């Protein structure tokens, strides 16, 4: 707020009223991908201009190797529109250029978190959510252990214990899908959830489930990864946040974090550094996904940071 002093009081400048008006404006994000060809950006900007919208942020990537265009445009305006209405009116343009596209309003993505015994990623997600920097809205925590019930409930989040055994795995996954529907979750985050999802569940959650892997590249799989890293004398500890696919820990990569280490780091020190990397990579991936900054491109991603 900008204030000016008068002889007897402080009064607000007219700019403040303009600021309030801007805050009330509808805000949207358009994302699209298609074969690269002339006229795409002009068609998008003309569409928005004709409806009285103002472009606030525009990013695009022209992939010359794959001959594709990826675009993210954030825009605002005072007219009353819904994402569905914009999609209907934009469809003729999308058909002309054979676009894969979507419009999003300011409604926050609803995030369901799954966790096992390691709680550092869950704790970091809760901290960022409560601080307003996560980009999404945590709605529930699901776990195959009771370990982090107190952490979730202290944050005001429902905690659902879903035990998993080889004999109950199918029932547990069906329960997960029911919880996704019940809490209207847009995104499922595996925050060190130490269960391998079935191929069928991976397909049903395609593009809306993010996992954190304790390595810069898919390596040191299985138990005690930081002991394996110590035995190999690693010089960098990293973590990879990626979309969940049937190929274990090899889905499209959203974000990676790397921290340099040396010979003085034992397994416990490596684990501590690794947990920091995991929390950072995962929170960024969740935020970028929730802000519609990640576009899937076959087995990879385009991320407009």
TrEMBL record:
Catalytic machinery residues: 249
Gene Ontology BP term (one): 'de novo' IMP biosynthetic process
Catalytic activity: (6R)-10-formyltetrahydrofolate + H2O = (6S)-5,6,7,8-tetrahydrofolate + formate + H(+)
Domain Formyl transferase N-terminal: 110-286
Assigned EC number: 3.5.1.10
Top-level EC class as recorded in UniProt: hydrolase
Presence of keyword Zinc: no
SUPFAM superfamilies listed in its UniProt record: ACT-like (SSF55021), Formyltransferase (SSF53328)
CDD domains in alphabetical order: ACT_F4HF-DF, FMT_core_Formyl-FH4-Hydrolase_C
Keywords annotated in UniProt: Hydrolase, One-carbon metabolism, Purine biosynthesis
Family statement drawn from the similarity comment of this UniProt entry: Belongs to the PurU family.
Protein name as it appears in the record: Formyltetrahydrofolate deformylase
Source organism per UniProt: Paenarthrobacter nitroguajacolicus (Arthrobacter nitroguajacolicus)
Gene: purU
């Amino acid at each position: 707020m900008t204030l000016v002093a008068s002889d007897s009081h402080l009064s607000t400048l007219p700019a403040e009223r303009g600021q309030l008006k801007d805050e009330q404006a509808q805000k949207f994000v358009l994302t699209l991908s298609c074969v690269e060809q002339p006229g795409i950006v002009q068609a998008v900007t003309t569409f928005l201009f004709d409806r009285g919208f103002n472009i606030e942020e525009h990013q695009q990537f022209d992939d010359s190797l794959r001959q594709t265009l990826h675009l993210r445009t954030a825009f605002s305006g005072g007219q009353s529109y819904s994402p569905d209405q914009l999609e209907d009116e934009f469809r003729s343009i999308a058909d002309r250029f054979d676009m894969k596209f979507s419009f999003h309003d300011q409604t926050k993505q609803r995030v369901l978190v799954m966790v096992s015994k390691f709680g550092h990623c869950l704790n970091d997600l809760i901290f960022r959510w409560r601080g307003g920097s996560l980009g999404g809205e945590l709605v529930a925590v699901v776990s195959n252990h009771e370990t982090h019930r107190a952490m979730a409930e202290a944050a005001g989040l429902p905690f659902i214990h879903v035990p998993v055994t080889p004999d109950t795995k199918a029932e547990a996954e069906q329960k997960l899908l029911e919880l996704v529907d019940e809490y209207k979750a847009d995104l499922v985050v595996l925050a060190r959830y130490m269960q391998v999802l079935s191929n069928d569940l991976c397909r049903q959650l395609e593009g809306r489930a993010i996992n954190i892997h304790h390595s810069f590249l898919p390596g040191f799989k299985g138990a005690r990864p930081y002991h394996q890293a110590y035995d190999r004398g690693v010089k960098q500890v990293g973590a990879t946040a990626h979309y969940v696919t049937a190929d274990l820990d090899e889905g499209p990569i959203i974000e990676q974090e790397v921290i340099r280490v040396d010979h003085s780091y034992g397994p416990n020190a490596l684990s501590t550094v690794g947990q920091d990397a995991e929390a950072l990579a995962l929170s960024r991936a969740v935020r970028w996904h929730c802000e519609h900054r990640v576009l899937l491109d076959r087995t990879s991603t385009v991320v407009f940071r």
